[in-house]
Structures are given as structure tokens and as C-alpha cells.
Amino acid sequence: xxxHHDDLGKIITLENGKTLAEGKGESAYSASFxxxxxxxxxxxxxxxxxxxxxxxxxxxxxxxxxSAMITRKLGAALAxxxxxxxxxxxxxxxxALAIAELARRAGVPDGVINVVTTQxxxxxxxxxxxxxxxxxxxxxxxxxxxxxxxxxxxxxTLKKVSIEAGGNAPFIVFxxxxxxxxxxxxxxxxxxxxxxxxxxxxxxxxxxSVYADFASxxxxxxxxFRVGNGLDEATTHGPLIHEKAxxxxxxxxxxxxxxxxxxxxGGQRVRGAGSFFSPTILSDVPLDAAINTEETFGPVAALIxxxxxxxxxxxxxxxxxxxxxxxxxxxxxxxxxVAEALEVGMVGTNTGLISHATIPFGGVKESGLGREGSHGIxxxxxxxxxxxxxI
Length: 391
Known about the structure:
This protein is α/β, with parallel strands linked by helices. About 35% of the residues lie in helices and about 20% in strands.
């Protein structure tokens, strides 16, 4: 994968629409999961021995990271000794096929890594990969509604399941934050991949005394973005994945504006061919707006004013999902209080970027089950106790 870094990055850009720089970044990121090494701790008994045995698995991945979401799972599965069947998203099959071909060239035996692509029979293939008794483990990344459906299918044979589902990440700026760094963090977190990431900020809460300053600085940065072809070096943001994504973004904006929000930047589709949408900032977004309860998955930053830390914690946790959360503060006591209080699986304090290969990646509540990345190999192993008698 490292030897074919440029080609893999270009494939990601061509099938997904993100910029070439982001495509190459994902290529390097996806390769990093294969490199991770895991050394298990010894069992502390002198008579009982626990061994770990691999399970055959199915891997179902989304379109927003068509390479990294495969290798995050596949690296751990292969290290555990598993064979795997990969079903990539119908929108982005080529990265999966490229990985399988490179694995073949690298000497991975036939039948260890298998790829099933599909356009018309997505539901039937997903059902088979979850219900077939040969498959002993299902690993899925995608939306919460689909996760619940697949979880139910996998329960028919009580398979091992790991799920990384949807998010509704709060991004919080307290009045003691470094506003410049908070703006940088918001841009990195909210607009990466044109907002089409499960850990990107969905609700941006800013304490009232720094609200105007933050909104002004963020608007200035976002207004300078350039939307276009991901292969153009001048492009900062590519298209959304399809028309349904455009429709959802537009619906969230229209709903917020109808309830009193103001459009500071963007707010409309880019004219011409392709599913391009202008990076958007909304101010004074009311709490009852749809964007606060639904994951937008698009380039829309919804700014909401708050007054107290206690109020903020209640707002941030008022959601059924809990994947990631972010906040900026220079108060050490507040950093610990808020980090522990947020009901999410991952917290970024004074940073908008948290994901890399060595961390335990995953959420709580309806954002999923299990962890990937660091210690992710455990998800692909069964523990077996062997008790030696008569010694």
C-alpha cells in the first residue's frame, strides 16, 4: 500500500470526491492500521491457560473512508488469524478491490481476503453476511439505523458484533479558550471531507462572551474555501457523495433558517454539474432545529450560544448517540470535568483531530459496540479456557 500510495490516493479521490491531498492522507492512514502491533498480556494463573482463537468475519464499510474503514478492521482481523469477506459501499468499491489486489501481490493466500461488490442486491448481500452460519463475527461501520438492522440480523446466530455507527458530535468553545486555535480546530473537525465524517462536529456551542469573535473568525476562514474537483490542487473541498446528501444539507439549512437562524457564509448549492455544496455557517441556531438532533453529514457549521458549563453539559449529552465530542478551554479543572462528563467514546480537548491507528476508536449509547484500532484485535478473537487437571 505504501509503494502504491499515490495511485490509491487518486482512486479514493475519483470514487469519493475528496481532494487528492485528503485521498493521499487517507491512503497513508489506512496503511497505518496494517502496521499496528499488539502484544497480549500473559494470563496470571499458573494452572489455567487461556488461548485466543480467530473467528471468520464479514466486514461492511461505508463510502466516506473507502480505504481506511476497511484496513482499520482488516488489519486486526488478519493479525488475529481470521479470513474476511469485505462488502464495500456500492458508491465506492474500487479502493476495496485495490487493497485485495495488493494483498494478492504481497503473498496473501487466495481466500483469506474476499471482496463482494454489489449495486442492486445490497440488502440481500448484507443479510447473508450477517446471518450465514459460516460467518462468526460481523464488523460494521455506517449509520445507526442500518447498524440496528444488521445487529438484529446477526443476533439470529448470536454472532460477535462490533459496530461503529452514527454520531452527533458537540464542539464546545468556552470563554477561556484560545479562540484562534478553536477556529482552527473547528475547521479541521467540521469541514474535513466536506463534513462527511462520523466524528466531525455537528453542533458547535460557543459561550456568549466569545460568540461574536468566534463566528467572525470562522466565517472569514470558511469564506476562503474553494469547492471543486478533488484532483485540482487549488481545491479545498470536494463534492458530497450524491443527491440525497445535498437534499439533507439543504433541508437542515432551510429548517434552521425557518426557525430564526442566520446564514453567515454559503447556504446554497454550487451551480453546475456534480453534487457540490458551499461550505456553510449558520448563526443563532435554535435548540429545536433538526440539525441538533440529526447528523447532517455535510459542510454546515451550526453555531449555538450558551451561558454556563452546567447548561452546556446538559445540551451536549441530550442525544441518543455518543461517538465523539470536542471542547476548547485553558482551565485545567474544567478540562477534566467536561472530558469526564461528556457521554461519548472519544473526547478531543483543545484539538479537532482525534483519530489515528493507535487509539481505541468507538462510541457509546447508540453510536456502537466495541472498539477498533488499539486493542481492536480482541474483537476478532474468542477466548478459550483450558483447565489442566491431574498435574
